[in-house]
Amino acid sequence: MNRAKSTLEQWRILQAVVDHGGYAQAAAALNKSQSSLNHAVAKLQHQLGVELLTIRGRKAYLTDQGEVLLRRSRYITQSVAELEQLAANLERGWEPSLTIAREIIYPMDKLIAAINAFLPNCRGTRISVIDSVLTGTHELIESQKVDLALCGGNPPKGHLAQPLCTVDLVAVCHPSHELALNPRELDDKSLARHLQIVIRDTGTKTNQDMGWLKAEQRWTVNNFHEAKAILATGSGFCWLPQELVSSELDAGKLTRLYITGSEYRRIPINLIVPNRDEQGPASKHLEQLILAEHGISHAK
């Protein structure tokens, strides 16, 4: 392995000379002697065999080669600073990564807002979001494969849950569909004769596909976007989050169906910490930001 000809300290000194406009100013900013900075840059140029700076009057100017190398050096010194910060965070117990299970009916804009609020103080923590459905969310919680879970419906047995919001699912179809002819005069028997689009349960142990399941014919898809694509062709009906289809309903691209005894299905969403005893500071911070998105600040 070839040893590096230069050091990070030399590059940091070069950056300071350029950023502060000269050796004297950089020396004052770094609390070093001007001669030591002159020596460091001169040695760096000699080691590389490339002229990096020229002096005109009392100010230092980058050469063309120096500008290219300086720009690349900033990535390196920044990466080292981030690496050192990550090591310090790990020493203090700050998690390098977080995984969130998100029941797909949970409003994504709320989660994005919380993650954006987390970003300025994330200390390099990486975030992964797993979209899950029904028992798939429960399995992630029970196996403690996630740090936080946004769970629809009742929480798994033995887990405390903080209620966040409710999501209303409404039955919809394309305006050209037969069901749209009398959308306010429907019952479960009339629905059962038509194709239903349902969302696949992501659990591995059971299968409880999302939606009213009395239809004789069903097509199962992975998410709401696939369901909407099928509905757009005029096939079937589906229970979808009202917020997700509000624009299509307003534009007349979808028709809402009103079923006697069940005009909509209201699903509670809870925030669950699968293992609070092992919860780290990054997870706690993000938890509070998610709660804040729902106007909740008292939960601990």
UniProtKB/TrEMBL annotation:
Residues 7-63 form the HTH lysR-type domain. PROSITE patterns: HTH_LYSR. Pfam families: HTH_1, LysR_substrate. InterPro entries: LysR_HTH_N (IPR000847), LysR_subst-bd (IPR005119), WH-like_DNA-bd_sf (IPR036388), WH_DNA-bd_sf (IPR036390). SUPFAM superfamilies: Periplasmic binding protein-like II, Winged helix' DNA-binding domain. Keywords: DNA-binding, Transcription, Transcription regulation. The keyword Signal does not apply. Belongs to the LysR transcriptional regulatory family. This is LysR family transcriptional regulator. It comes from Shewanella jiangmenensis. The lineage of its organism: Bacteria, Pseudomonadati, Pseudomonadota, Gammaproteobacteria, Alteromonadales.
